[in-house]
Write a structure and sequence with these properties.
By secondary structure, the chain is an alpha+beta fold. Helix content is 25%, strand content 30%.
């Protein structure tokens, strides 16, 4: 052993770590066909995820190229972000896109298809600028050979230039089947009225495009000899054994992406239901996390839980927040999406402390372009959260879970609800069912379609 302390694979770029470990690889220059140098740097973007930054430079011809790729896991659902660009300030919003991101400008009927460009960190203006430059390439040749086409492209570029200069409003749509995309919200942590984020269930074709297969598909491929995975037999692991065991499996640390172990156990929450609790401890960076998944299916109705937080007793209430549950604090105009905190079993104080910690640790996001007003606004919000956690400010905490798998402890005896707690069950909308993947789910006679397909083939 050399005595050097272990370091995370993906590290923050800070003054305490002035020499990040960049990997240099000799690679071919696509411009002059000679050898250049590619540098790889693994780092993290606050409020987003781990990324791999790639920079290429050729000393012979001076050609340079920069790319970004996600270093994290593929999200459970795809993501569609719609932004109403209304003023020149919106053009400066930061955008993180992956290789699988597609971009649309609705008013212009303009689309940049998925996998046509590499992933990058840019702005709305930067995307428009790159699009214009791409369209203007080889225009001189087109003017000689196809003057009508060249004229149409010139007209279209002029229209895009008006949008880039902020002279006309437009609708910007960013869609990514991996879920690894992001558009800056300058009002964070408050909701942005111009920004709409929708999560959607990927189609079978989209899953295959990302290399994701269902158990049935894995079993079929395994029978054909194309897969190395072996399916567990139906009665090979009884449920009774699972309930009494603490299972352990290898994974990656959610903070530094170093290899570590996750412990998992099924347990029952009194007056609620069975849940699966997963806990991870990383020996490299010391990160400790716990995550909770519902042990049952999606409930028939969604649930909206409102609890008034007026003192230390209310802050100690147990809270189960599922990974489909959003969180709202209307008094401070705070709205947290389902994916931000994930599923967790904690207390009201623990939920608020997690929000504060996430904002404090990631408060320097894109600090090079943040103005002083934005920083002061975020600092004031974090101070307000501190007052709430200390019990000096009264609020209403609202948990909205379309899947119905969230819970807040009642301080009354038995199954009764106390006066500060209000639980409302509601019928999900079509959009909520679509996000949960329920609209296309068939629970009865689901074998008929397969039989019909087999009959058609035969």
């Amino acid at each position: 052993m050399d005595g050097n302390p272990k370091k995370p694979i993906f590290r923050d770029l800070t003054a305490e770590d002035p020499e990040p470990e960049a990997t240099e690889i000799e690679s071919l220059c696509v411009n002059c066909m000679k050898n250049g140098t590619t540098r790889l740097l693994l780092t993290k973007i606050p409020f987003y995820r781990e990324v791999i930054l790639m920079s290429f430079e050729c000393e012979d011809c001076g050609y340079r190229n920069n790319e970004i790729q996600s270093g994290g896991e593929i999200a459970d659902r795809g993501c569609k972000i719609t932004l109403e660009v209304k003023n020149p300030q919106d053009l400066n919003r930061k955008v993180v896109k992956s290789d699988y991101s597609s971009i649309k400008i609705v008013e212009m009927d303009f689309e940049i298809p998925s996998q046509s460009q590499k992933g990058e960190i840019t702005t709305i203006e930067g995307i428009l600028e790159r699009s214009i430059k791409g369209l203007q390439q080889e225009q001189e040749i087109r003017r000689e050979n196809h003057p009508e086409v060249a004229e149409q492209i010139d007209t279209f570029c002029q229209s895009l230039t008006k949008l880039k200069d902020g002279k006309e409003p437009f609708t910007f749509v960013l869609e990514d089947i991996t879920g690894n995309c992001h558009v800056e919200n300058p009002s964070a942590p408050a909701a942005d009225p111009q920004l709409t984020i929708t999560r959607f269930v990927r189609s079978e074709e989209q899953n295959h495009q990302l290399g994701i297969y269902t158990k049935a598909e894995v079993a079929k491929k395994s029978d054909e000899g194309n897969f190395l995975l072996k399916m567990i037999e139906e009665d090979e692991w009884p449920l009774e054994e699972l309930l009494g065991e603490v299972l352990q499996f290898s994974t990656l640390c959610p903070e530094c992406r170093s290899p570590c172990e996750t412990n998992m156990k099924m347990t029952s929450i009194p007056h609620f239901k069975e849940v699966v609790i997963m806990a991870t401890v990383c020996d490299v960076c010391g990160c400790k996390t716990n995550e909770v998944k519902s042990g049952s299916g999606i409930e028939e109705f969604g649930v909206r839980i409102e609890v008034k937080i007026e003192g230390r007793e209310d802050l100690s209430r147990d809270v189960l927040k599922s990974d489909t549950c959003g969180l709202i604090i209307p008094e401070i105009d705070c709205e947290v999406g389902p994916s931000a905190l994930g599923g967790r079993f904690t207390t009201v104080e623990g939920i608020l402390d997690a929000i504060k910690k996430q904002l404090s640790e990631g408060g320097d996001t894109f600090v090079d372009s943040s103005d002083e007003t934005t920083k002061q606004k975020l600092d004031r919000f974090i101070e307000t959260l501190g007052e709430i956690i200390a019990g000096r400010k009264k609020i209403t905490l609202i948990l909205d879970d379309p899947a119905g798998n969230s819970y807040v402890q009642s301080l009354a005896d038995g199954d009764a609800m106390d006066d500060a707690l209000k639980i409302t069950k509601y019928t999900r909308s079509f959009e909520q069912n679509e996000e949960l993947g329920l609209n296309d789910m068939k629970t009865e006679n689901y074998g008929e379609e397969l039989l019909e397909k087999e009959d058609t083939k035969s």
